Amino acid sequence: MSSFLQRLRAVHAPSIGLGCMNLSHGYGQQVPEPEALRALDAAFDMGYRHFDTATLYGATANETLLGRALKGKREQVLLASKCGMAIDPETNKRVIDGHPDTLRRQCEASLKRLQTDHIDIYYLHRLDRQVPIEESVGALGRLVDAGKIGGVGLSEISAATLRSAVTEYPIAAVQSEYSLWTRNPEIALLEACRETNTALVAFSPLGRGFLAEAISDPASLPEGDMRRHMPRFSPDNFAHNRELLDDVTRLAKRLGVTSAQLALAWVNAQGADVIPIPGSTSMAHMRDNLSAETLYLDAATCQQLTAMLTPEQVAGGRYSDAQQADIDTEEFTVNR
């Protein structure tokens, strides 16, 4: 069992964690702090114990928010954050930097914002192609040795990069997008994770809201919402994909659950070493998502779901060409 899964057990965390990005980043305007704090307090009371943030989110605002929300609760949770990708305050542009000095500096700043002396798992948010992965991972390993982080993680990386990384230091977890309509880890990463005793943390397990039926028309998404630039949400592709989703929603109704619960249960069914971290700004949706932990899918239902929204069926890549340039993961050939 990976050190990441051991820590989850130590804090009695459910098999579903909480991605906190939505509160500060990615999908339009930030949630006002008082409202966001109430949502995080409610999430803890519901039973969430795995909270995921990053230096990037809200240009550090999300880490500050988590630090305030989890004050006094720190030892009861698994706290995850990320480094190596940040917003440059002078240019307001995203910068990927995996140099050891940068990672150490960002870790110290994260610790202060999170109001803690250690982060349970600290991910390299993106591979810096100008820095050998062994150098970046080595720097993070030294942070483990110093007691500042509990484990080293990687995000959006390929199986080959993971295998190179573990020659330098054990990798506790890898974050990758994984859901019914994003199966990329199945190409090679999931196998590599199991070879290296590395947990897979599935971000966007609800397809950025798509699988939860949260989007009826991408044109209605607010300015600044990253989905406006993702091919799957273009008008033609979205219309095609929305028809595919009908099969999922019909099955969910037949089982008496929501489509979001069904999608999360499918991710959970991929193995105890696969941990979904859906995000939401809605307390009702947080509760709905967490309740999927107890939803058991038999083999026939899993097979039925697996045959839906396959890479061959889904229209559009998960990222635009510009976004994809920063991604190291294996990709399917897609219809755009």
Automatic annotation (TrEMBL):
Pfam families: Aldo_ket_red. Gene3D superfamilies: NADP-dependent oxidoreductase domain. GO terms for cellular component: cytoplasm. InterPro entries: AKR (IPR020471), Aldo-Keto_reductase (IPR050791), NAD(P)_OxRdtase_dom_sf (IPR036812), NADP_OxRdtase_dom (IPR023210). Residues 16-307 form the NADP-dependent oxidoreductase domain. Keywords: Oxidoreductase. GO terms for molecular function: oxidoreductase activity. PROSITE patterns: PROKAR_LIPOPROTEIN (PS51257). This is Predicted oxidoreductase. It comes from Vreelandella subterranea.
